[in-house]
Amino acid sequence: MLDKNGIAKRIAREVKDGMFVNLGIGIPTLVANYIPEGINVELQSENGILGMGPFPIEGEEDADLINAGKQTVTLLPGSSIFDSAMSFGMIRAQKVNLTILGAMEVSENGDIANWKIPGKMVKGMGGAMDLVASAKNIIVAMQHVNKAGQSKLLPKCDLPLTGIRCVKKIVTELGVFDVLPEGGFKLVERAPGVSVEEIKKATAGKLTVEGEIPEMVL
Amino acid sequence: MLDKNGIAKRIAREVKDGMFVNLGIGIPTLVANYIPEGINVELQSENGILGMGPFPIEGEEDADLINAGKQTVTLLPGSSIFDSAMSFGMIRAQKVNLTILGAMEVSENGDIANWKIPGKMVKGMGGAMDLVASAKNIIVAMQHVNKAGQSKLLPKCDLPLTGIRCVKKIVTELGVFDVLPEGGFKLVERAPGVSVEEIKKATAGKLTVEGEIPEMVL
Amino acid sequence: MINRVVKNAEEAIKDIKDNMTLMLGGFGLCGIPENCIAALVKKGVKGLTCISNNAGVDDFGLGLLLQTKQIKKMISSYVGENAEFERQMLSGELEVDLIPQGTLATRCMAAGYGMPVIYTPAGVGTEIAIGKETRRFKFNGEEKEYLMEHAFDADFAIVKAWKGDTAGNLIYRSTARNFNPMMAMAGKITIAEVEELVQVGQLDPDHIHTPGIYVHRIFQGEKYEKRIEQRTVRKKD
Amino acid sequence: MINRVVKNAEEAIKDIKDNMTLMLGGFGLCGIPENCIAALVKKGVKGLTCISNNAGVDDFGLGLLLQTKQIKKMISSYVGENAEFERQMLSGELEVDLIPQGTLATRCMAAGYGMPVIYTPAGVGTEIAIGKETRRFKFNGEEKEYLMEHAFDADFAIVKAWKGDTAGNLIYRSTARNFNPMMAMAGKITIAEVEELVQVGQLDPDHIHTPGIYVHRIFQGEKYEKRIEQRTVRKKD
User: Fold this and answer.
1) ipTM of the prediction greater than 0.95, yes or no
2) Contact check, Cβ <8 Å, C206/D137
3) Is B46 a catalytic residue?
4) Which pLDDT belongs to residue B166?
5) Tens of pLDDT, residues D176-197
6) Chains B vs D: touching, with 3+ CB pairs under 8 Å?
7) Pick from C122, C234, C236: which is nearest to A130 by CB?
8) Mean pLDDT across the stretch B92-98?
9) How much is the pTM?
10) DSSP string spanning C44-89?
11) Which CATH architecture has domain B4-208?
């Protein structure tokens, strides 16, 4: 079973040299900590940064320099600042190669729900709808089941959708799953110590398990 | 009868304090020389300048600083530079208050032709089609008749159009004309020494002459 | 040059009336027009429709105008972290139109660029698409569905910049830029408050983010608090 | 940061092939990619479709590629001052698509901003509108007709900037900016030549006009002629 950092660490492997990457709030933010040495990527923050750096050293916070999660951040040498229209322009024009974000539910055909629980939580979609509608490569980082113990990998999302047919890969505490073009979740790797049976039990949507499923080595 | 500078001088009176003005190539460019002291205007050049200044002093030309006519120019204090998309964005959004340009023909209903003579001259429309399609206030500066002696104020344009129902005012060497909302040219002022009869003879389109027409004093 | 300077926030907002539509720059509490918000609270103008990416926090930013119930409707992309907002929304006191952040930015840009509508794929297949015209287009070799979205139509845009000159030219600092440039371009009347107002000629024309043609009134604000919403730091290595 | 540096113009354009579509920055001879144009002439690649506001003059700028008959089609807004161009156009050797300058700029912008189409009133009621979809929209309180225009789809964009860094960030100088930023955003592959190439960290992030994400290849050009097309001066007062 993976903890949040384990999920982030596993996702970091999907980040390839030369990529421009947008990291959502929560676990995706942690991915930045695990990108291997020698892999040059630039982080895009949709409020208007390319080349976002780590949190500032204590005392060096700048109120004018925040990320899309409103956290104080820094700029790396070679970074650039732009307005929100250009930011979403580069997202729509698919210049950002990889988007990693959290989800409440993902369906077999790659639909994602992550912005609203009717009657309960309505904080807004922020930039998520723009990102999932345009990004060519979307990885979801999330817990496999919700607090009520129900699977979040579903035949069909129950919650209001953020985007349709867009998620390509899911990493949970239990394993790594590809969303198949024809629909369905394909188990790619098991988390350390997790059995295929456990994963089957926790997955409500159609799960494809072909041959021996390797246990991931982090 | 006005010469080119006279036409420019007369048009300069239409420029009011606080206006952003786009001046076309030819006579319109001369208008800048006659804007009265105390009238603060900013000249927009559609290749990306607000606050364009006069030609540079000899020896101070800068290849990177030209106007839409490709002439070397200068920047006034408080000027700004922007790209062509923003430039035409501000034109379309009607932030530019006044457009002054030349024409080959203007029709009674305010159509303008100034970019093409089929089989003869095809240099292109440049920014003229954008300007005339969006500007709220368009003044045409031109000769009243063409080189063949034919009137350029017509019932209907013969040449390919640049824009429709857009010209509000025309200043020629013979006088000043308003284009009436219901169609037709209304004689507003006569050029010094020009009679109403001469103007009538040189105007092919419907001309309205109401009461005594004052001779302009420059 | 055309002088755009007004004395202060009170003068800048003097003709903002009840039931008008305002655009307000900023992302979270970053790059918000603090002085104008304070002046709007003081003026007590009511029934406002506010186009702003966020709604501030309970006691700062647009949260101040929510407390005093001066806002009738919010058009935003994210409104979390604001208990009073949530209360007013759930009780039905406050109308809320939640739209994707890129759609919000691009509808501002459309207004500034004279484009009556734009097409975006954001929200296709979701409840955002309900009642909207859709159309399939090919872009970048891929055909997909887009939503038609209209340019915003705001009476006033109120933005905050770092530096500005008397001709209204603006320069933003770091991510305090965010929505400010597009909103500055989009307002029928645009008000800019700046941390430092300089004479014309002191800003490099190549560095101007918002040309003065878009800015109708400019003033130097005072007492900027520039509150940080999520102070996150790391230890020195 | 991701290093975008290539050695020179030859390397930058090495995979430009016959019959491709190129965007080339510049207004007149101002801000044109001189080094890449020279390299294209040397390479001899043919059948090009060039999207460029102008076509250079007889012996400079895109005029050089016209002399060698490497251009099949020009998409421009103004092509005066070029006798060889006129000859090829009138003889039918060269296809020419003349479009309004704002339409040209905005179709580049649309490509860079992921907008498949845009609407503009430019050309309504003229021969430019023939065969195009039109639609009435209300904007700024006024209803009028607009033409639907498509985003450009170019294989390469070739731009010229003043300064650039190894991550591909670009800063333009004065009116040499013109079409370069939108074209940089619009190319499937974007090549930037700069007068001065610096290391990352030497350009102020707030001053970047084109973020490096849009630029795939960058190099420092050489021997910039920067020819002036219309030298106009006044006497010292």
Assistant:
1) yes
2) no
3) yes
4) 97
5) 999 999 999 999 999 999 999 9
6) yes
7) C122
8) 97
9) 0.97
10) T--SEEEE-S---BTTBTTHHHHHTT-EEEEEES---S-HHHHHHH
11) 3-Layer(aba) Sandwich (3.40)
